[in-house]
Amino acid sequence: MLEELKMQVYEANMELPRRGLITYTWGNVSGIDRSKGLLVIKPSGIEYDELRPEDMVVMDLEGNRVEGRYKPSSDTLTHIELYKAFESVGGIVHTHSPWATSWAQACRGIPCYGTTHADYYYGEIPCARSLTAEEIQEGYEKNTGLVILETFANRLPGHVPGVLCSNHGPFTWGKDAGEAVHNAVVLEEVAKMAYQTEQLKPGLQQAPQALQDKHFERKHGANAYYGQK
Ligand SMILES: O=C(CO)[C@@H](O)[C@@H](O)COP(=O)(O)O
């Protein structure tokens, strides 16, 4: 079942160590088939160099395993909350990539200091609030998804394709698993640049709004013209 999606999700997972976003098994990628209401996700805790396409786990949106010999990623219920709320999203990534995770551990959103950021993320990349002790003890992974959704109450997931979870790490998404990985790579680069920018100039303001608007619009707006559009 879902052989093509399994291959896509497998390849997207394997891109994480190639891009230096993963140490050991610290991350996961999923993709969804909306017509079937099923998602495919990496199994939990299996070393990347042992992973095979057929090891990907098929889940329904209620959190039941539909196919696969392994247990799914421990973050599956977070992915499910995001898929349920963000209808345009087709792929999700979670990593502990060090620069993005450093901002998450500082419980800080990443300000938009330049056009690299604005080309992909419109405005600050937010940091979701910390979970309460009760939210951690009961339903932790689902609640991680719910606080991300709280953070997006007044944001569009298509404008800001990622978030930081306080004291934890980043989640990113996209139209499919490959685009979600692309956005994870960009987030890591932008997190590094923002840190270095603040070292060079503490107290800096975000990039001018007109510049942020121009760079986001020319790639993603109704009249986008970046590349071969
Ligand atoms: O946050 C954590 C562990 O603290 C997980 O995201 C990470 O180790 C990946 O777990 P899975 O192998 O996907 O279950």
Automatic annotation (TrEMBL):
The record, for NCBIfam families, names: PRK08193.1, PRK12348.1
MF (Gene Ontology)? aldehyde-lyase activity; L-ribulose-phosphate 4-epimerase activity; metal ion binding
**Where does this protein act, in terms of pathway?**
Carbohydrate degradation; L-arabinose degradation via L-ribulose; D-xylulose 5-phosphate from L-arabinose (bacterial route): step 3/3
- Identify which cofactors the protein needs according to its UniProt entry: Zn(2+)
Quote the Pfam families the UniProt record gives. Answer: Aldolase_II
Every copy of the Class II aldolase/adducin N-terminal domain together lies at: 7-195
**InterPro entries for this protein:** Aldolase_class_II_sugar_metab (IPR050197), Aldolase_II/adducin_N (IPR001303), Aldolase_II/adducin_N_sf (IPR036409)
The record's GO CC annotations read: cytosol
Query: So what EC number does this one have?
Result: 5.1.3.4
Q: This protein is called what?
A: L-ribulose-5-phosphate 4-epimerase
Per UniProt, the keywords (alphabetical) are: Arabinose catabolism, Carbohydrate metabolism, Isomerase, Metal-binding, Zinc
Q: Please write the reaction equations for the catalytic activity of this protein.
A: L-ribulose 5-phosphate = D-xylulose 5-phosphate
Coiled-coil stretches: none
Q: Which GO terms describe its biological process?
A: arabinose catabolic process
Functionally, this protein is described as follows: Involved in the degradation of L-arabinose. Catalyzes the interconversion of L-ribulose 5-phosphate (LRu5P) and D-xylulose 5-phosphate (D-Xu5P) via a retroaldol/aldol mechanism (carbon-carbon bond cleavage analogous to a class II aldolase reaction).
Enzyme class at the top of the EC tree: isomerase
The UniProt family comment states:
Belongs to the aldolase class II family. AraD/FucA subfamily.
